Structure formats: C-alpha cells, structure tokens
C-alpha cells in the first residue's frame, strides 16, 4: 500500500462526508498517474503554491495601492489569511482541509495589477468581459506551466470559479472558501484602514459591531464560530442570517468610507488610466507586445487578441505594469554621448 492510499483510507475514517474524500474526486481535465505520496487535492495545493502566478501576488494590490510601509495586506497575504480561516473551519467540520487549502490558495491567481481597479478596466475594455474569478481558472487551466495549465481537479477549479458571493460552489469545501474570503477581506481591510488613519474603529456602524465584535480579533473569532455553528446545525456550510447581514453592513460601510473616494484610493484613477493605456497600446499591435505563449495562440488564430491582451495584462504585478508604462509612454532624458 502506498502512502497516498494510506492517506486516502485515513480520510475515510476522519472526514464525515464521503463527497469530501479524495478518492471520490471527479478527476482532472487530463488523466495522469497518481502520486505515491499525496492525494489529488494535496497535489493541487502544491502545484498552486509553487506556480509563478502565486508568487506574483506578493506585488499585487489588495486595497492600498503602493502603500508606504510593510504591514499593509497584499493580494498574497490576503490569500494566506483566507487559507488559514478556511482551514480552521474545515478541520472543525471534518471536511477536506487539503481541498479547502487548494481552493483558497488559487482563488485570486487571476487578479490584475492594482486589484479591482485593474479588473474594472479590463471588464470595460474587453468585448468579452473580464472577471478575476474566470481569469483565475484560466491561469490554472490555460496559462501556467507553459500553457499546459496545472491540470487541477474539478473540485478545485469549481471552488476557484465560484468563490464570489454571486456564485455557489458545488462542494462544501468551496462554500467554506467563499465565506472565508469575505470574512478575511472585510476585516483585514478594516484593520489596514484603521492603521492608515483613514477611519477609526468608532467610525464603523455600531449595530453590526454589537453582533460581530468591537475588534479585528473578536470579529474574526465570532464569524468563524458562527459559520461552524450554523453549518453543524443546518447540515451545509453557511452563516446565520444575523451574522451575514452584520458582515455585509460592515462591507457597505467600507465601500462608503474606504473603497471609494478615500485617501487609500486617491491614486486609483491613475492606475486605471495606466491599465487602459496598456490595453489600447497592446491592441494596436498585439503581435509585437504579447509574450511568446500568447503570441503563438494569436498567430494560430486559436484565441481572440482581446482575450490574450487581457491574459498578458492580468499576469503583471503592480511594479511591472508601472515600469512597462514608464518605458512605453514616459520620455527618457536625452544626453550627449
């Protein structure tokens, strides 16, 4: 018996829902030989963790664009916080922690430079639309590994594709990540905004704080407990209506005071203009600008140039996009040699 088979047997004694067992996965896009040491979900987690798109998230905006200071969240640290919250919930509910972790680590791989500001520009510019959820699936299926993708299991791809509040994953593990994402970003964005003196704790509406707590720690702890209690009671992963409403009220307050028009967003219009200028320039001559993998797909007629240009831009870090914009559009000083 291999180590993997021992792990699969252990899952069957520990995990309460057979749908969570690795052996019951719906499989990969392409068949491949199983690992002798890792379950399919463990392999998916490791493939995501080691891919280039995952590393680039350390230089992609969460909320604060190019902040001064080392303590503000980036897209990568957000991802790690989502993973930690989701794993805690999965372990207590006796669901598949490896599956949860793989979904959580991969859910934001398709985010653009400058976060949602870049996403809005590509959604507006491309006639085919653009969402970071769909792009994350595209990254793991069509872009990483030299265009071969990571060949992830159906369950991981489904969880990544459906982690927004407007969608619903097909697995309980995907539902955990869907809630953990909101728990993480609403609360850590509050924490960052308070640290930056954009708001104070007392600026937040009092009623949702009465429900969720009066500090970052209290709110995270309360929300995680509520998900566990509500899910155990109802037989499916979810949150009580009272806690969900309170969380969304805090989210609405953040939109009013931080996400739109605040000091944290004062440079956002410049970022949007930058992404728009890059898109227009690339579309003027995509064969010139696209990286070799995307250029090959362009020349073969395999995919539309608008989609490939979005692939190229979405893959950039904030720093790379700014440097490329500078190289393309900012005049260089002329000196006599």
Task: Please give the structural blueprint.
Elements: H1 3-14, H2 40-49, H3 52-56, H4 75-93, H5 97-106, H6 115-125, H7 132-143, H8 154-161, H9 172-195, H10 206-212, H11 216-234, H12 241-259, H13 268-284, H14 286-289, H15 292-300, H16 305-314, H17 318-329
Helix pairs in contact: 2-5, 4-5, 4-9, 4-11, 5-8, 5-9, 6-13, 7-8, 8-9, 9-11, 9-12, 10-12, 13-16, 13-17, 15-16
Describe the protein's architecture and organization.
With 337 residues, the protein is mostly helical. It has 17 helices and no strands. The protein is flat, with a radius of gyration of 21 Å. It starts with a helix and ends in an 8-residue tail after the last helix. The model has no long low-confidence stretch (mean pLDDT 95).
Helix content: 55-70%
Number of helices: 17
**Mean of residue pLDDT values:** 95
Bulk shape = flat
- CATH class of the largest domain reads Mainly Alpha
Tell me the CATH architecture of the largest domain: Orthogonal Bundle
Under CATH, the topology of the largest domain can be stated as Hypothetical protein af1432
Oligomeric state: single chain
> How big a fraction of the residues is strand?
under 5%
Descriptive labels:
mainly alpha, 0% strand, 337 residues, 2 domains, 17 helices, Hypothetical protein af1432, flat
